[in-house]
Amino acid sequence: MDAYLIFSNENIWSEIWPELSLALGALFVLGLDLFRKPGSSTSLCGLVAIGFQAILLGVHLFDYLVWHHTFDRDTFSGMLTQGIQGDVMRSFFLFSSLLVSVLGNQYLKNKSLRSGEFHHLTMLATAGLMLLSQSNNFVMLFVSLETVAICFYTLVAYNRNSSKSLEAGIKYLIFGALSSSLLLFGIVLLYGVGSSPEAWGAVFDGAEGQDPLGFQYIGNLIEANPDHLLLRAGVVLIIAGIAFKIGAAPFQIWVADVYHGSPMPITAFLAVSSKAAGFFVLISLVNGPFLGMCDFLLPLFGFVATFTILFGNLASCAQQNLKRMLGLSGVAHAGYLLVAVMASMHFAGDSDRAIWVLFFYLFTYLLASFCVFGVMSLARLEDETDHEFFHYENLAKKHPWMGFVLVCGIGSLAGIPPFAGFIAKLLLISVAFEAKLYFSLSVMIIGVAISIYYYFGWIREITFHPKPSFSDDNDQNSPVIWEKGSYGLFKPCMISLAIISLVLGIWQGPFGDAF
Amino acid sequence: MSFHQTLLLGSILVPALCSILLFSGLGKRDSVVKNISYIGFLFPFLAGIILFVNFDSAMRGYCFEVFYPQMGLQELKITFHLGLNGVSSPLFAMAGIVGLAAGIAAIHSGADRLRLYLALLLIMQSGLMGLFASIDLFFYYLFHEFALIPTFIMIGLWGGRDRRSVALEITIYLTLGALISLGGLVALNVLVDAEKFDFPSLSSALAETALADSTQVKIFGLLLFGFGILVALFPFHTWAAKGYEAAPTSVSMLHAGVLKKFGLYGLIQIAVPLLPEGAREWSPYLMWLALGNILFVGFVTMAQTNLKSMVGYGSVMHMGYCFLGVAACTALGAGAGVMLMVAHGLSVSVMFLLATQIQKRSGTFEMNEMGGLGTKTPILACFFIAASLATIGLPGFGNFWGEFGVFLSLGQEPDHHLFLGLAALGIIISAIFGLRAIAKIFYGSPSDELLEHVKKNPISDLKSQEIVSAGIILIALLFLGFWPRGISDRIDTEIETRYSGVPSLTTTSLPPCCLLKLNNSTTDGNLTNYSSDKIGIPTQNNSIK
User: How many Å lie between the alpha carbon of A366 and the closest alpha carbon of chain B?
Assistant: First the structure.
């Protein structure tokens, strides 16, 4: 019976209870959908999904805060590793998924689309993301990344009535497949060298019995052969694969199209969770297995970050369509976050601070993005991909709460005080300065200044009443777009997100000590 | 918490709370809205005056400190720390005075959506008081942004011609400036190993281990250009006059009068004392740029026919003198700079206020379409002439002592005589446009357009609330003009300690107190004796450094 003992000792299932219950919940929602009465307007699935995830988030946060895991340990034969950072990301993904469900519930009601599969896929994708944030092995990394990606392919094309959504789905599928294959090829190269180092001229006598795809093993291998060509190629390919996910240049080309076509809640999901996952994987890879190649990777990242920031901001300026603009400005945000990744590489071995800054930035980005996408998802446009600036004319006067939420969101994205986004940028500037990344820092400052143009241009549409002569044409179609209605749970959710991002900008309280 | 600390904290919180009350929709009637706003503007005014009077001029460092270490990011050593020192105390009082005047003007402006207008203006007032009361550099910056953001919104909502594009232009310009200066502040935060991120901790940490010269030059450059954009330093001044022209009057008053002092205050309080080598390196360039403000913008001002844009450009032009004072890198220059900042803030805001009163009566800002108003509105004429003369720098108003001090500080150094000569031309320029404006508006015969306008809208003189709002500013200006020691003593005490480490460019630098004693003895001998007795500073110590 030893085999059973080993099995139960190695695989501590209780450690992944949030993922397991999320997956079970997802199945339950899918099953529940079968019992839906045809033509009924109440979305029971949505409510169940929201309630379930809210409870799960609450329990997980309680678990984290009260019996917080202060130890790092490997489970499942080294496939997963549990630690504080992974736990924070798990809560982050759960929170984001909860908000996607809240947005989705409202959105699907407006669009009269079926809700069961939507929530099911969202929850599954989140379970995959949560596993991804704990993976400690390249196989685990790839498998969980694919789980997420497949859910996303479906979700992006969820609005089957819209050709743009389908187009976006296909585009995302093709680009996603390309990025996965790059990633996989990189992993294969590392594995090839790692399993028989001597054959490839690498000097390494790895510990016996270690998995040649484990992060530990690859890390030691790279540490011993930082100049090995194949290893370098493998690392660069893996980073290219991840750069696709986060939308970093030169792999950013899909972002605008996919953001444009996807249903609004999924755009938010892509912008927040998918990007956050990419960054968490990236930052744990460059501070873990790829640490030995720091000197090689830093200039590479410097180039990518500069290009990403400039491309994202300049391309956003030219956009009239808001979803494309948000996608491209998301590219710019990816560039800023890459600066945090670079900073973490500079403090090799003591990277916690940069990682916490990255977390804080991601958290403020989450709050702001959901504020923005949440309000946008309420627009009753014939084709929802057609969000243009003029649709938002005078929104603040027509619907003050929408205006407030939207302005808070945009202000926070732009990094204007007193919103949380400003504190995040301040922290980012300060770590970048400590890491002596002066060039990237100056690019970032220029980028932020450019971004004011499009973010503030939008705020201007929302708040500043245009001259009556201009507004005549739009007054006829604007009431159609922004309907008064009871938004139920949705409204307090959005307002509280906006207030959180306002309060975090002034008083950072618990986060202040966390760094 | 003592009475004074409560006042200091209250001057920030009361306007903010009043603003929240207004936002929350309290009180349906206009009178409630107006009363709440009066409270919001009167409290900082009274707090400013009381704290100004109770400030001990002989004391160095900060008074009335309020300290909450829990607030703010501990990671970046940021704490919530308020207090006033010799430099900030007069500016704090000035912010209160201008705030009240702008507030009264706004309450009676009859703007549509008055509640929102006043609520935003109160946020701005709260930020302005906080900005001068902050010791911590981060909150100093944050309060500045607090005051700045309502500016954009108010220009966008209530602005005049081209408000939408102007609002966007100003936002981009000022955000860039704010980010660059933030870069400089972060550099100080990261590079200086201080206990807290505030003025005293930074300077004591730097006294132990100074930064390398090259680093100082870089950080000073960041702060100079960041702050420079915010203060409309030549050639980054193009946003300013446009913005003031488009902005509603109260916003122009608060922005041009008070908020724009943020950058200079930062240079005088932080940049020059903490980074003396950087200041010395940049000083010649800064001088040329400041001359650009005085001469280039001065000529532009002369060409204006629109009264409001003339006042706007004039305010940008006179900031050049403050920059010259800073660039001189001496205690005298910096002290005179602070003096001029206070006087400039008062005089510019009263000019904006009166320009709008003129526009209300004549229906236009075009000076060519006015004339002969003096006979119809004698009080307005009298106020406007006084304000213009103050702006030009006539003795008897605070601006005179500021400009005089700046010239003296330039005169101390032979290398600076060229700048002195060119800067003095600015006085002539401002006299030309100032006096010409008076002549065009109040003297001569009324233009046809004005007669046309008057037929439909009969002209009346200033109303009582308009007299009060302009009057408190003019009284303050006269107080400064006749009793400069009222603020120069405390500025001296503070500046001398801060600038003791600054490598003086001159071999025999004259302490500023000498100058102002001299001033007082020429204006009024009795005052000098009285004050030096009362303060009890031995004259010898002050005159020989």
Answer: 20
Cα–Cα distance between A376 and A264 in angstroms, integer? 7
Which one, of A338, A358, A369, lies nearest residue A511 by Cα? A358
Between CA B368 and CA B362 the distance in angstroms is 11
Half-sphere exposure of B16 (CA within 13 A, CB side): 13
Q: Tokens in use for A247? A: 């939308």
Residue A493: the pLDDT is 87
Q: Compute the C-alpha angle A29/A35/A37, nearest 5°.
A: 120
* ipTM summary value: 0.81
Closest alpha carbon within chain B to A445: B179
Asked if B156's CB is within 8 angstroms of A427's CB, the reply is no
The DSSP H or E segment spanning A418 is: none
Residues 6+ away with beta carbon under 8 Å from A371: A405, A406, A408, A409, A412, A494, A497, A498, A501
Q: Do A460 and B164 touch (CB under 8 A)?
A: yes
Asked if A429 lies within 8 A of B175 by C-beta distance, the reply is no
Asked if A437 contacts A339 with a C-beta cutoff of 8 angstroms, the reply is yes
Structure token digits, residue B86: 């010799």
Distance in Å, alpha carbon of A80 to nearest chain B alpha carbon: 31
Contact B291, B419 (CB under 8 A): yes
Q: Which residues of B11-22 are buried (b: 16+ CB within 10 A; e: fewer)?
A: bbebbbbbbebb
pTM here is 0.86
Chain A nearest-CA distance from B165, in A, is 9
Helices of type H across A347-419: 352-376, 395-398, 400-414
Q: Does B74 contact A513 at a Cβ distance shorter than 8 Å?
A: yes
Q: Which residues on chain A are in Cβ contact (under 8 Å) with B142?
A: 417-418, 506
Report d(CA B468, CA B271) in Å as an integer: 37
The verdict on whether omega for the bond into residue B503 sits within 30 degrees of 0, i.e. cis, is no
Task: State the pLDDT at residue B501.
Answer: 57
pLDDT of residue A368: 93
How far is A2 from chain B, CA to nearest CA, in Å? 50
A137: which DSSP letter? Answer: B
In angstroms, the Cα distances linking B117 to A40, A133, B13, B159, B244 are 47, 48, 18, 11, 17
What residues in A contact B189, CB-CB < 8 Å? 430
Q: Does B187 touch chain A (CB under 8 A)?
A: yes
Interface check for A479 against chain B (CB to CB < 8 A): the answer is no
| Dmax (CA) of chain A | 84
Quick: pLDDT tens for B480-524: 888 888 888 888 888 877 776 555 444 334 444 444 443 443 333
- pLDDT tens digit sequence for A272-309: 999 999 999 999 898 888 888 888 889 999 999 999 99
> In this structure, how many other beta carbons lie within 10 angstroms of the beta carbon of residue B455?
8
Q: At B536, give phi and psi (nearest 5°).
A: 75, 30
DSSP structure class, residue A214: B
Stated as kind and residue range, the H or E segment containing A75 is strand A73-75
Are A515 and B75 in contact (CB < 8 Å)?
yes
Q: What is the pLDDT of residues B350-364, one digit of tens each?
A: 999 998 888 888 888
> Residues near B3 by Cβ (< 8 Å), separated by ≥ 6?
none
